[in-house]
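Obj.: predict assembly geometry.
Materials: sequence records (below).
Method: joint structure prediction, all chains together.
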Amino acid sequence: MNLDIRHCRVEPGVALFELRGEADAFTAPKLRQAMMDWLDQGTVHFAVDLSQLAYIDSTNLGVLIGALKRARERGGDLAIVSPSHRVMRIFEITGLGAIFPIYDTQEAALCSFRGNQDGQPGS
Amino acid sequence: MDSPEVELSIPCAAEYVGVARLVVLGVASRMSFCYDEVEDLRQAVGEACTSAIERAQATNQPDARITIRCVMEQDKRLTIEIADSVLGFNSRGRATLAGPDTDEYNISALLMEILVDEIKAESKPEEGTTVTMVKYVGRRTQ
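Observations (raw structure tokens):
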């Protein structure tokens, strides 16, 4: 199964990513390049929807960590949206669930970037 | 046959990690593992293969290979050996797999240790690295 990456600009400085399929070492360069492109264009906030992602390996976790670091250096953030059961298990095992803000919906993640108090992290 | 074996040899390249994970799915599904146990095994094997690929890339060894050997033991436990031919690494005196000190590599080592019931790794500079992992049926980790 391949990785399908959809990304779009929600508003200035904010990008929404949707990952579908399986994210392994072969697909990691594709994700890294997509995130770098948005960072280079001035995007500082990322909402990354992982609800349709069946598998994520350490290489892709490294890509997300790198993007999170760069976003935060610029005053932004990277929020995870609705991770699938398997992906949430990996976030919990690695402790990354405590580092990335995780939201139940795309709307909640996007609200958090606007400082909206309704956008509290989900489970 | 008490302990049937399945063996696969793949190039040490990222595009073949999915092949290794598919084989582990096929083998583990012949035993009484639950869904999460099978997926934990597939993840751990994928991480071991990725670790070999990163070491091969870091030391420019494009011809290296990975051999995955699965031994099914009476529907009680599955032992999987992931042996690579990436030379130049030595794990003697190390608690974890030898390799670069990066976020990805450390997460990979952590995942492998947690997702299976037993794991050991041995690197010999002139032979390569062998990771041996064991998963018991019905003993889900964490």
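Conclusions so far: Chain B has three helices and five strands.
To do: check interface contacts against the pulldown list.
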